[in-house]
Design goal:
Helix content: 40-55%
CATH superfamily of one domain: Winged helix-like DNA-binding domain superfamily/Winged helix DNA-binding domain
CATH architecture of one domain: Orthogonal Bundle
Radius of gyration: 24 Å
Shape: extended
Number of helices: 6
Largest sheet: 3 strands, antiparallel
Strand content: 5-15%
Order of helices and strands: HHEHHEEHH
Number of strands: 3
């Protein structure tokens, strides 16, 4: 039996090398947490607000202290306290998530006195976030359009699974 391919004229497609595959998978794994996505969203919005730290209506982001986002000379970065107030989380929870984001070089830090300010590492992170959001919103728009036309497959509600302890308790019941 020959080990030659029967398809001729095609050149092999170069695939990613193992180090790139592992690094990309780790990046997507880090982005797979809702809290980290919210943190990246907050940092992206502050970074996009420009030097004034104001949103489209001219109002500052709620819950930020005077030294946080938009303060002159601070490069539109947020400290842990600002992020915790903005997201309604504890400072320790935000700090833990920022440590993970920093280890993957998705955010960068800058120290000002005793505070550390966080910002998105570079424009690649902003583009990655924007493209992911565009993809999600596009899929949601298509799904809404199909539902509006009354088409699309009907989906049955998922069946609830009973926990093991509940099944054991049912057997023991008189």
């Amino acid at each position: 039996m020959s080990n030659r391919s029967y398809v001729r004229g095609r050149t092999p497609i170069p695939l990613l090398g193992e180090p790139s595959v592992v690094a990309l998978a780790e990046t997507f794994k880090i982005l797979g947490d809702t809290t980290r996505v919210r943190i990246l969203d907050a940092l992206a919005r502050v970074q996009g607000a420009g030097a004034t730290g104001l949103d489209d209506r001219g109002a500052g982001a709620p819950g930020l202290n005077n030294r946080g986002a938009g303060a002159p000379g601070l490069n539109n970065a947020l400290c842990v306290q600002d992020l915790a107030n903005l997201l309604g989380l504890t400072q320790s929870a935000v700090s833990h998530q920022l440590r993970l984001l920093r280890s993957m070089r998705l955010v960068r830090t800058r120290r000002d006195g005793r505070q550390i300010f966080y910002a998105l590492d570079d424009d690649h992170i902003v583009k990655l976030f924007e493209q992911g959001l565009e993809h999600v919103e596009e899929r949601a728009g298509v799904a809404r359009a199909v539902q509006a036309r009354g088409g699309g497959p009907e989906r049955a509600a998922p069946r609830a699974k009973r926990s093991r302890s509940r099944r054991t308790a049912d057997k023991d019941a008189p």
